[in-house]
Amino acid sequence: MVLKYSKALFMALFLLVGISVSSAYAFVPEHLPGQGGVKVIDVERHPQGETQRMPSPAEACGDITTTTLYAGQHINSGSVTIWNDADTLYVQFATVDGWTMVETHVHVGETLADVPTTPAGNPKIGLFDYQTQHDPAVTEFTYEIPLDGFVGGDSLVVAAHASLALVDDNGDVIQTETGWADGPDFPGNSWATYVEFTVQECEEEDDDGGCSLTQGYWRTHSTYGPAPYDETWATVGEDTAFFSSPETWYSALWVSPEGDAYYILAQQYIAATLNVNGGTSTTADVDAALSLATNWFNSHDPGVPASSADGQVAVALSEILDAYNNGEIGPGHCD
Could you report the per-residue pLDDT of 67-87, keeping only the tens digit for each? Predict the structure, then answer.
């Protein structure tokens, strides 16, 4: 799969950006990179001009490799970025200047001999392990490939190909080209290239990531008491206005939501933000939910029915943050 989000976060994304859940996927059985077999993905349908939400290299282990995605051998049409975490190799395509991707193909092996080629040494993209048909065309796409059998320090060969289309301001295709991630040449007589990548070591965390606390704790441990003051409150300020609401960060915790999605989300958001500011580690889902919630508050005022479309987004995000605050996800709740 391309996305690695919890069910609740996926539903929030679905409601927020209209991702279709009716897309078809066709997979062959799982296999290790370079073992053969083809994984064909019928990519999610997105409105014209939208791109996918992608895994980010921000949490990569070690160094990240980025190379130019060349169209027709000499045209800079974007980039291909490769990184890994402890379990997964990521190959991310991104185009620029009106170029879009109609198809992408990726093959990973220990040596160049693992990449399917013709007798003359030209790559056979139809036999690459990972293939995606993009309809409509996309400007970003990321493959997630299991690192089973590979460890830090291992050298890999990554062949990354794209069928590219240049689109004008009217949405009309004015040029098509084949594209390759820049690197050494294949031995054949085509201009196809590949990337050399070294699997990066992942360092273990030095601490346990802290623990999380619920809104009930933060409600009673401010400068207003009655429990001892938690200095984490100083990172936001109890009396700071909470976005466009008439409440402060502190007083918003005491509002009875009564079906108002704004305050349902606000109370979990405030608690989660204070947990993070206090040094509690997060997860990708929590980080994404906090970011989406911030954007949501920047475009909404109080008085959003929980049953409305925008309210459902807020409630879905609040469920993720509630799970984090209660220790169901993340490092766990403080005893």
Answer: 999 999 999 999 999 999 989
